Amino acid sequence: MTDLSIGELAARAGVSVPTLRYYESRGLITSVRTAGNQRRFERSMLRRLAVVAAAQRIGLSLEEIGAALASLPGDRTPTRADWSAFASQWRQVVDGRIAELQALREDLDGCVGCGCLSIDRCALVNPGDAAAAEGAGSRWVRAARRRP
User: Fold this and answer.
1) Boundaries of every domain in the chain
2) Whole-number Å distance between alpha carbons of 125 and 131
3) Residue 118 neighbours by CB distance under 10 Å
4) Residue 7's CB: how many other CB atoms inside 10 A?
5) Hey, which end of the chain has fewer CB within 10 Å, N or C?
């Protein structure tokens, strides 16, 4: 038999069964059902899961990964050419993140680290002293920590 049970796919892909169910609910992978209503996955789902894992490693969201996989005709297995196209698009995302982190690294020199973010020099959280109009305090940092 060429199809894999959900447990076999999970073991081969190195993810949990609930993760596979979630990925299926998000449209990242697909299965067929047996007469006994058990999920069966084509072996090609292993390659799709490898693409998902690689994309997550570079920080893409499941929405971004799903959009890339949805671009494949007929929900087929990603090929080397598909991966090259994905990598080309995702490289731009990674380059943008690298640029943001480099700018953040440069801004660290201007941070006095005192927690008072209304200082007009703070380029990290309060560029241009925009928080001064809202009053004293470090509300922006606490709000940034709560954001996903």
Assistant:
1) 4-92
2) 9
3) 17
4) 11
5) C
For 55-93, b/e burial (b = at least 16 CB within 10 A) is beeeebeeebbbebbeebeeeeebeeebeeebeeebeee
Angle, helices 62-70 vs 45-57, to 10°: value is: 140
CATH says 4-92 is which class? mainly alpha
Q: Identify how many contiguous H helices and E strands the chain contains and give both numbers.
A: 6, 3
Report the pLDDT averaged over residues 26-38.
Answer: 93
User: In the chain, helix, strand, coil percent, each to 5?
Assistant: 60, 5, 35
What is the spatial distance between Cα 64 and Cα 70, in angstroms, rounded to a whole number? 10
Mean pLDDT score, 6-11: 96
Compute CA 43 distance to the chain's CA centroid, rounded to the nearest angstrom: 24
* pLDDT, tens digit (0-9, with 9 covering 90-100), for 52-82: 999 999 889 999 999 988 888 766 778 889 8
